Structures are given as structure tokens and as C-alpha cells.
Amino acid sequence: MSSLNLSLTALHTFSIVAKELNFTAAAGVLHISPSAVSHQMKLLEAQLGMSLFHRKSKGVTLTQEAERLADHVNKGFNLLEFGIESTKRANTTERVVLAVIPSLLEHWLIPKLGDFYQQFPHIELQLIAQDQLIDFNRHHVHAHLHFGHGQYQGYNCTHLGAEWIYPVCSPNYAKELGKNAELLSYQHGIEDAPGIIDWNNWFSHQSINMTSQPVNRGFSHVGHTLTAAKYGQGVALGWHVIASELITQGALKKMQFEPIAMPFSYFLVTPHQTHQSNALQCLLQWLQLQFADSRPCVVCDE
Fold first, then answer.
1. Are residues 81 and 151 in the same domain?
2. In 68, 84, 233, 272, which residue has its Cα 20 to 30 A from 205's Cα atom?
């Protein structure tokens, strides 16, 4: 614009006059006097070296050149307004990229996000499903909601909550449950490495001797077994935190066994020597509140 030596104020006034086709009406929109509008239009015509209006007793009409100019000027001001608003939003919106173990993300975190969005409308949260601890040097991620021992060299690890395990199934499956229940298993070492509790561990902990080999149906992730259990396909070893929403909704039912504490917990992991933004601190505090009431009762519901 500077190379054209045109007045931005005069161009803006022109865009309004082109819509109103009347200097007095344009002056009302701009909250200036009609004479000021007239002066700016004369200035713009002088700078462009062309006439822009056919002046009449009641208003004006645009010349052909002015009609073409009005189209470009209006598009330009729309683009300028969009750029300014985007800049303002970027200045007020804080972005956090959070990696989360997949089953916790799908079954526990996503159902709770409405509360987070309502409390922190200024935070733009991007979520990434990630099994193993993410490589912060290779990925632009601010934190990882991870399950493990919480002792990672070079990282800050904030403890969020413990985890327990117990059998779950759908209410209808529970009514028809017999000796030959189908057991739903997940692949160890993906989300729980190295805190493994499988069906063999669970039977041993409960002092149950299996007289026959049960039917096992395998999946890659804990969340998959919970979904299969919800649809009446067998009994899953439910992680309490991950299964809690499905249990609350009545889609799954806890069976009459004491929960077993898993040897590892949930941590929010961030790199050392990195600035923790206000948005990340808000997210951490919110997560701590969500985990606060996560401990199950010692005796499960019947």
C-alpha cells in the first residue's frame, strides 16, 4: 500500500460509500460528517487520478472503474479484518498438545472433555493416542498422560492416580454367566508395560484353580476388551479408571471380586527444563481433580 501512496482511511470510506451510494448515509455509518466523507473521496480520486462517482442530486453512482475498485477493496478489507481477528485469537488462545494412552483417551478422557472445554475456552487442546512414552525430541508434544513407574530420566513426572483391575462384563452377560465364560484378553506390553496383570495372574491372586481351559479372545488394547465386553462377548479384566465411565453408564457391571492394585500408575510426563505454560498448568490441575475420586470401593457391587 505504501508504494501506491493511497490513504487507507480514504479506501475504507470509499468501501462504505460504494455500499451506501450516498455520502450522508456513509457519514452516518462511519460517524463522521458528510463533508469529511466528501473530502476523503476527493483525496482518493486525486491519488488515483480518476473519477470514481457520478454525482447526482440524491446520492452518487459508481463509475465502471470504481465498481471494479470497490470489489477489490471490499475483498481486501475482509481479508484484513480476518487477519486481525486471527491475530487476536492467537494472542489469547493457548495450545496444548497432549499424548494419551489410547484406551484412557477413548474411554475416560474424551467423555470428560466437555467440562474442560467449558472451564478453559481459551485453551486449544490437541490429543494424540500414543502407547509408549513419546519421544519429545521428535514430536511436537507438550506432555504425555502415561501409565508406568514414573521414573524416567530427563523428564518431570507428576503422579495423577493409581489403577486397579477387576473383572467386568455386560449386565445381560452377567445374568447368563456360567462356568465356561469367554475371557477377553489384551496384548501385554503395549499400554501397561511393564505392569502386567493377565488372567493367569488374576486367577492366582484369587486362588482360583481352573479345571478347564477357558476360551480366550484377544485384542491389542485394554479399551478393545471393554468394548467387546459391553457387547456381551465375554468377561474383561477392566482397569478401574478406564472402565469407570462405562460402569457409570450401566454398559458394564463390576463382578464380585476385590480389586487388585496394579504395580504402576498414571503420570503426566513433561521434558525437563521446558517452560510449563499457564495452559499446561491448568490442564494438570484439571486432570488431578478428575483422578481425585478414582479409587474404587474395596468390595465391588454385586
1. no
2. 233
CB atoms within 10 A of CB 244: 19
204 compared with 67, residue with greater pLDDT: 67
Give the whole-angstrom CA distance, residue 98 versus residue 105. Answer: 10
- Residues 223, 168: Cα–Cα separation, whole Å: 12
What are 27's three cell numbers?
457519514
In a domain, 298, yes or no: no
DSSP state of 179: S
Q: What is the arithmetic mean of pLDDT over 52-79?
A: 90
- Amino acid at position 115, single letter: D
DSSP secondary structure of 205-258: HTT---SSPPEEEEESSHHHHHHHHHTTS-EEEEEHHHHHHHHHTTSSEE-SSP
Q: Which of 66, 43, 47 is nearest to 5 (CA)?
A: 47
C-alpha cell, 258? 476385590
Of 34, 66, 91, at which residue does a domain stop? 91
Q: Categorize the per-residue pLDDT at 215 as very low, low, confident or very high, splitting at 50, 70 and 90.
A: low
Tens of pLDDT along 237-286?
999 999 999 999 999 999 988 888 888 999 999 998 766 788 999 999 99
State whether 87 and 100 are in the same domain.
no
Distance CA 252, CA 296 (A): 15
pLDDT tens, position by position, 10-34: 999 999 999 999 999 999 999 999 9
- Partnered with residue 162 across adjacent β-strands are 265
Per the structure, the complete domain to which residue 237 belongs is given by 96-292
